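Researcher: I'm preparing a figure for a lab meeting and need a structural model of a single chain. I don't have an experimental structure, so a prediction will have to do for now. The sequence is pasted below. Please return the structure as tokens so I can convert it later.
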Amino acid sequence: MKMKCLERDFVMEGLRKSLILIMVFMMFMTVPAMADIPYTNRTTLHSGYDAERSLTEEQIFGLLNAAFSMPTGGNQRALEFFVVTDRETLSEMKGGNPFSQALDTAPCVIVITADTGSAFYEELLEMDAGIAAGAILLQAADFELSTCVLSIAPQQERIHSVRSALGMDENLLPVLMIAVGYPDTDMVSGASVSNWNEDRVRWSR
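Model: Understood. Here is the structure written out token by token.
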């Protein structure tokens, strides 16, 4: 009888260990290998756009539609977008922004503004603008366009320059602007997609 109990315990222990091994194997199978991670072909271009190569109307509407399709805090839908293609206006918008070289040659700049007068949750407006900007960047990549995101708020000098150049009402807060266009033939667009860092990922199972 004692022998049978020992045999049963041995079998149960073997099954237990086998189940643990299977569970560990399945857990690691669900973590994607680096080589299998899909990546975007998004590219950042800080300067050197082909100023003579304009975006098509379909491309601009596609970028805006991507932004409008994104969620907003409490579904407040309080963002407004300014599409700027005039070189003189773009030059005026550079005030107070020492890192805005992209505006010198980009054929199109989309300014994302938050309507503080109609917002339900003003504290979420910058989050909304960031989500919309991300959608524009990814859609631009699908169009094989390069982009550069430039901050405006909360720097007051930048806010004033953009508001003044575009004749904005005081209730509109310009948060971000995105330069969009094709790289000049002599320029190489800096890829911004190879930043995978496994140490920055935490798995909770």
